[in-house]
């Protein structure tokens, strides 16, 4: 009896595998018959996933950059020209009580001018002509903090109760404004990417749906016979779902190849220009994003098929 049950289970498994194989072959034949519209549907899926991939890479790199910038934020404490030694010591004492400070470095007028010259480069030397004799740069403290959140503590420590700077301090400048601007740009890119993705996903569903409609129409007689002999709804739907998933898979493969190669070129150019810049490695596209593309593509394909079949077939 046990052997008989095991034989029946084994036969059921073989039948299921054979049925899936039959559905798969059937889906490939259908795609070949409707080659033009199937290619258009796969191309639209690829375009949809390409937009998604570009937005994801931009967001990941910007967030990585923001984290890097946050850990390297410096607060510049500029002194007045007539600051006294006691006032300078008072400012230093206030800073030592602020949490999150990595280092406090004194930067002289001459050091500040040298740094400014290096930033301008050789092409803009004319802009700093005459500054050596009459240096406009102020003396300052350069305060490095462990995270940009601690920058506000530095600013607050050097303010009086009425909001003005303490004696001897001209201005306190932190890097939070840059981080806020980058965050705003990141959010804008994110929402624009989401809108474009939704639009292209809708177009993909429409094209995949039309592909499935052509297949259903060409096989309407066969489907009618299957329904008449008692085939289940999912037995009828599954070949079309597989067909949609294959279209999505084809689009995903195209996207992986295009995104990887384009991003690799971008990475190599940026890396050679900005050696200290921390950006996502191209291998991330193959190891992580490729699976996301495949799953997203097959999901779009399956969804398009299911929606169309539900409306088109009275099953």
UniProtKB/TrEMBL annotation:
* Cellular-component GO terms for this entry: plasma membrane
* Cell cycle is among the record's keywords: yes
Q: Which domain of life is it from?
A: Bacteria
Annotated localization: Cell membrane
Q: Does the keyword rRNA-binding apply?
A: no
Give the family from UniProt.
Answer: Belongs to the ABC-4 integral membrane protein family. FtsX subfamily.
What protein name applies here? Answer: Cell division protein FtsX
């Amino acid at each position: 009896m046990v052997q008989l049950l095991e034989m029946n289970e084994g036969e059921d498994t073989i039948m299921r595998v054979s049925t899936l194989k039959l559905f798969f072959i059937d889906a490939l034949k259908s795609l070949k018959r409707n080659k033009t519209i199937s290619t258009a549907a796969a191309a639209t899926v690829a375009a949809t996933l390409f937009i998604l991939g570009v937005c994801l890479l931009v967001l990941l790199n910007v967030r990585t950059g923001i984290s890097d910038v946050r850990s390297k934020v410096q607060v510049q404490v500029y002194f007045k020209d007539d600051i006294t030694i006691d006032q300078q010591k008072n400012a230093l004492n206030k800073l030592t009580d602020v949490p999150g400070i990595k280092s406090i470095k004194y930067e002289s007028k001459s050091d500040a001018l040298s740094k400014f010259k290096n930033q301008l480069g050789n092409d803009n030397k004319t802009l700093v002509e005459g500054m050596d004799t009459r240096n406009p740069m102020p003396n300052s403290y350069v305060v490095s903090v462990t995270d940009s959140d601690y920058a506000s503590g530095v600013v607050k420590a050097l303010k009086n109760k009425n909001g003005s700077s303490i004696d001897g301090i001209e201005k306190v400048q932190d890097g939070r404004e840059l981080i806020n601007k980058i965050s705003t740009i990141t959010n804008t890119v994110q929402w624009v990417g989401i809108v474009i993705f939704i639009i292209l996903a809708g177009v993909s569903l429409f094209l995949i749906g039309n592909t499935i409609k052509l297949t259903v129409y060409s096989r309407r007689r066969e489907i009618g016979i299957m329904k008449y002999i008692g085939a289940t709804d999912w037995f009828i739907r599954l070949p079309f779902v597989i067909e949609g998933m294959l279209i999505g898979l084809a689009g995903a493969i195209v996207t992986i190849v295009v995104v990887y190669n384009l991003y690799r070129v971008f990475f190599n150019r940026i890396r050679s220009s900005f050696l200290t810049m921390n950006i996502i490695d191209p291998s991330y596209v193959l190891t992580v994003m490729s699976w996301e593309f495949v799953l997203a593509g097959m999901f779009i394909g399956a969804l398009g098929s299911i929606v169309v079949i539900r409306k088109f077939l009275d099953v």
